[in-house]
Write a structure and sequence with these properties.
Layout lengths: L2 E5 L3 H13 L3 E5 L2 H11 L3 E4 L8 H11 L5 E5 L4 H10 L3 E4 L6 H41 L4 H25 L1 H20 L4 H13 L9 H4 L7 H18 L8 H7 L20 H16 L10 H10 L7 H15 L1
Parallel strand pairs: 1-2, 1-3, 3-4, 4-5
Helix pairs in contact: 2-3, 5-6, 6-7, 7-8, 7-12, 7-14, 8-11, 8-12, 10-11, 11-12, 12-13
The protein binds fe (ii) ion.
Fe (ii) ion binds next to loops.
């Protein structure tokens, strides 16, 4: 049995929906406008919200936007009479969990949607709990490591390995949240190591590049999914949230005693050689070499990949972009090494 809020300005539709859902054993609350529905939601905290789209006194867009902000864990299903594709896409982007068109000729569709939403909400709760437990485990391991760090080198090494395992688990959690970012991290790591190799860097620096490449976007775990996957332009507040992934990644990794500057490279991977990057606007060689290498690998891999808002460039066009921006976005020495990597890959 679920507690369901039905928002619709047409009494006849509310009544038929209510009767059907009550026959199925659910408890139903009714509201005649978006504003009334939001107020009722706050009092009753139902499990699911069904909302009409076009209503006086606060429409379905208002309901969806409000719910995404106040109770993103509660499924909101839009039932619209217009059946417009643009409207459906807009509501889903705002945070609606599903979109149905009315009149509902087959009321069983409503019953099936209730079951589907309950299952989906439960899966999301489980995933969030899993993520929280991983974060707490990482935090605990970090604290243990600090306790042991003086005079317990063997233990330090063992705990460092455990931390790396824990971070792999965080990466797995990130894959659940944003499959593109997790795959992107692996590919960036591989390209960064190739560039480091072409520059003649030693094993330790290459290890740092591998770890920093794998973890460079781990901070996106703290960025809302709807912003990560947004297909339209980001507003200024969303840009700030996306950019916070570098400081978020640094916070996650900063306490771990990696042999090399992994956390610092993660923090600086969006700095630009000409000083126009973030978070600190560092320029030239004040940016860590590992971060300058990551910047080349990161942008090249991103340009090659298809994203929700654009198709990927071909490898040649992506490489040309890197070459043209040597001395501006990218470190010239790193671009020279990148050219070597590209020419080797074509040989
Ligand atoms: Fe990034």
């Amino acid at each position: 049995m679920a507690r369901i809020l039905c928002i619709d300005d047409e009494p006849i539709i509310r009544m038929s929906t209510r009767d059907y859902l009550m026959d199925m054993g659910h408890e139903v609350f009714e509201a005649a406008s978006g504003a009334e529905g939001i107020a009722l939601f706050r009092r009753q905290r139902p499990d699911i919200v069904f909302s009409d789209l076009r209503m006086p006194g606060g429409d379905g867009f208002l309901v969806v936007a409000h719910m995404a902000e106040e109770a993103p864990e509660t499924p909101v299903v839009i039932i619209s009479g217009t059946g417009s594709l643009d409207e459906a896409v807009k509501t889903l982007r705002l945070g609606a969990w599903d979109y149905l068109t009315k009149p509902l000729h087959d009321m069983d569709l409503l019953g099936q949607t209730v079951q589907r939403m309950l299952t989906k909400a439960s899966e999301r709760r489980d995933a969030n709990q899993y993520l929280l437990s991983l974060e707490s485990r990482t935090y605990t391991l970090e604290r243990e490591l600090h306790d042991w760090i003086n005079g317990h080198q063997d233990t330090v090494l063992r705990l460092e390995a455990a931390l790396k395992t824990s971070i792999s688990s965080l990466n797995l959690a990130l894959r659940e949240k944003d499959p593109y970012t997790a795959g992107h991290n692996e590919r960036v790591a591989s390209i960064a190591v190739d560039i480091g190799n072409a520059m003649g860097l030693g094993d330790k620096a290459q290890d740092t590049l591998m770890l920093a490449g794998r973890l460079h976007d781990i901070g996106k775990i703290g960025v809302p999914q709807n912003i990560l996957n947004k297909r339209s332009f980001l507003n200024p507040d969303e840009i700030v949230q996306i950019r916070s992934h570098v400081t978020g990644g640094y916070r996650i990794l900063g306490e771990i005693p990696f042999e090399g500057p992994v956390a610092e490279a993660v923090l600086q991977h969006h700095e630009r050689y000409d000083g126009t990057g973030y978070p600190d606007g560092l320029a030239g060689e004040s940016i860590l070499l590992e971060a300058r290498i990551l910047a080349v690998a990161d942008v090249y891999e991103a340009l090659c990949s298809d994203r929700p808002y654009r198709a990927g460039l071909g490898q040649n066009d992506a490489a040309d972009y890197i070459f043209k921006n040597a001395g501006k976005h990218f470190c010239p020495q790193c671009v020279d090494a990148f050219k070597l990597v590209i020419s080797r890959s074509k040989a």
